Every structure is written in structure tokens, then in C-alpha cells.
Amino acid sequence: AAKADGKNRLAAYEPRLAIERHEHMRLSAELRRAVAEDEFVVNYQPVVDLSTGRVTAVEALLRWSPGGRPVPPLEFIPIAEQYGLIVPIGAWVLRQACKDVRTWYERFGISVTVNVSGRQLREPDFASVVLGALREAGLPGEALILEITETVLVSSTADADHVTALLSTVRAEGVRIAVDDFGTGYSSLAYLRHLPVDILKIDRAFTPEGGMAEEMAFTRAIVELGNSLRLSSIAEAVETPEQAERLRQLDCHLAQGYHFSRPLPVGDLDAVLTSRNGVLDGASLLS
Ligand code: C2E
Ligand code: MG
Ligand code: MG
Ligand code: MG
Known about the structure:
By secondary structure, the chain is α/β, with parallel strands linked by helices. The chain has 12 helices and 9 strands.
């Protein structure tokens, strides 16, 4: 059904979109093959406690390189969503991420945070997919965080009651919910009052670049909102020691970004965590 919908929507294309459409069809066919042939890889990027350097979580980021050429997630994930392929792919990411984090959770208390698309949330069996992935890996719910973008959380296309019930079900098992790309998606904050969430991931748009008063004011306001609602805040895309220091001064407790580490293949990150005993203070850049 998803496929037929997609075709109808694309039927009335303009000539200048023909190439784009062709590329789109080609990617969706390749994605279908990639699902069947298990061609995806998950990389992990540390989330670091700004006062101790301790890695508290790792974000699972999907990687796909058909024929050795990497395709950015922002190109293939929207297509996977449109054709419903994100449902099997997303379930695979959840199982893989839970499996991969198991020893890090046991050795260092590191949780894994997994991006979830709106399409997955609307699947009636999503809660059992999540809890099944945990059970299969022998992990408690506390080891898993689900990242949902602000836009998806508040969009009218997702049935609000269904989403609230779903989040409550997994939270009852200890799973935490993070609002991804916080601050860019929606003009009203009212949803934060009734949606069960635990963490704000502050969009990179609010990671202070140069320490100017005005941009610092936005960052401070968001961090204070999170702190006063007793939510943890994770700053995204922290690239320099100065940014990390400014965030620390604003009382933001957690951050991720190239300053600490790029997303790494599981074996590479395992070597880093082992050699540094789970602490990354950003003193030496990892690339
Ligand atoms: P996101 O969830 O907001 O992920 C953060 C993105 O920022 C990642 O891009 C990461 O590589 C990048 N990043 C991390 N640190 C820095 C930094 O210091 N500077 C800069 N400039 N960028 C940084 P990536 O891996 O290309 O993923 C892009 C988006 O694709 C993600 O944004 C997420 O929305 C989506 N995505 C990735 N994996 C999955 C997945 O398994 N499922 C779903 N549904 N979406 C995914
Ligand atoms: Mg994310
Ligand atoms: Mg994000
Ligand atoms: Mg983002």
C-alpha cells in the first residue's frame, strides 16, 4: 500500500523533477535489496558528561554504503520512510543497537540512544519490537533511549493518544524518551507538559558558535527550561573545547559532537572505551 501511495503522489511530476524522480526510484529499489541482503551498518557516537568526561550513552547512527559509496542518512532515510522500508530497517537497528551496547552497559553503564521515525511509531506492534530487542539482548529498559524528533512528536498525522500510550508502555519498562532536534520543530512548548519525555536533545542550531550574548541567551533559555522541568539536556554537534566550556557554564550537563568523537564503527569505539576506561574529555580529538 505504501508503494502504491508513493507512486500516486509522484505521478504528476514536472519535467525538471524527472531526474530526481528517477534517482528516487533507483534508491528505493536499492534500499529494498539492501534490506534483503542485510547491507546496513550502525555506527555509534558517544554522549559525554560535561563535568566528568564519562560516556553516559552512545547514539546509534545508521550507515549504508552500496557498492562502497556511502549515502548520507538524510538522503536515504526519507525514501525508506516513504516506502515503509524504515519499519524493517528500524527494527533491525533496534536489535543491533541493543546487542552492541550490552557489554558497554555492563562495563561502563552506557545506554544506547536510537532514532525512531514517525512511521515506526504508528506501527501497532512497535512497543513489542522495542521490548523484544531488549529481551533478545538481555538488557533492562534503562539501557535504551528512543529519540523522536520534535516534529514527529507533535505532528497531527501521528495519532496523539496512540503515541502517548506507546511511550507510557515502554517508559514503564525503564526506557527513556528523548526529543530530538529540540527547538527547531514547533512553535509551542505546550506538548512538553503532557507528553511523557525524559531528555531534550538541543538542536545544533543552539550550540553556541562564538559565544555572542544573543546566541548564548537562546542556549541558556533552552537549558534552563530542561533543567527546571527536570529533563536532561544533551547539546548536539559540539565541535570545539570552547563550545564545551560554554555549555558547561550554562549548566548543560551532557553533550555529543566531533570534539569528543565522531560516530565510530562498533569495534573502533570499543577500543577507545576500553583504552580510556569509558572517559572521553575531548583532550585529544578522535577522527
Ligand atoms: P540526528 O539524530 O540529529 O543525528 C545527529 C547527526 O549529527 C548525525 O548525522 C551525526 O553524525 C551528526 N553530528 C554529530 N556530531 C556532529 C558535529 O560535531 N558536527 C556536525 N556538523 N555534525 C555532527 P548523520 O549520522 O548523518 O544522521 C543524520 C540524521 O539521520 C540523524 O540526525 C537522524 O535524524 C537520521 N538517522 C540516522 N540514523 C537513523 C536511524 O537509525 N533511524 C532513523 N529513523 N533516523 C536515523
Ligand atoms: Mg538523533
Ligand atoms: Mg539530533
Ligand atoms: Mg539533528
